[in-house]
Design a protein that fits this description.
Strand 1 and strand 2 form a beta hairpin. By secondary structure, the protein is of the alpha+beta class. The protein contains 2 helices and 2 strands, in the order H-H-E-E. Strands 1-2 form a two-stranded antiparallel sheet. The radius of gyration is 16 Å and the shape is elongated. The protein has one domain.
């Protein structure tokens, strides 16, 4: 456990920066007016996962009826494989 705590301590500033970036994106899927922000968050997460070595695919899985009655496309991330070469040590 000590190594985990050391890793967190060493990378604390990066983790805080990443968290700040994530919460800045107003990605509440129940808000129709924020739909573009939801897509932005999905793409942000795709980028973060790829930096960690994951192979990521964005998948449109059909339509979703939003609370206001409008219909939009549902988008998910699928991690199809893990690349053994890690790129998150930058």
């Amino acid at each position: 456990m000590e190594k985990v705590f050391q890793y967190v301590d060493v990378n604390k500033d990066r983790f805080i920066k990443d968290l700040a970036e994530a919460v800045e994106i107003k990605s509440v899927s129940a808000w129709p007016e924020a739909r573009s922000e939801v897509v932005k968050m999905v793409k942000w997460m795709q980028n973060r996962l790829e930096k960690c070595g994951a192979s990521v695919e964005l998948c449109e899985v059909g339509e979703q009826t939003l609370p206001d009655g409008s219909v939009d496309h549902a988008l998910f991330i699928r991690i199809s494989s893990k690349n053994p070469t890690r790129n998150d040590q930058k």
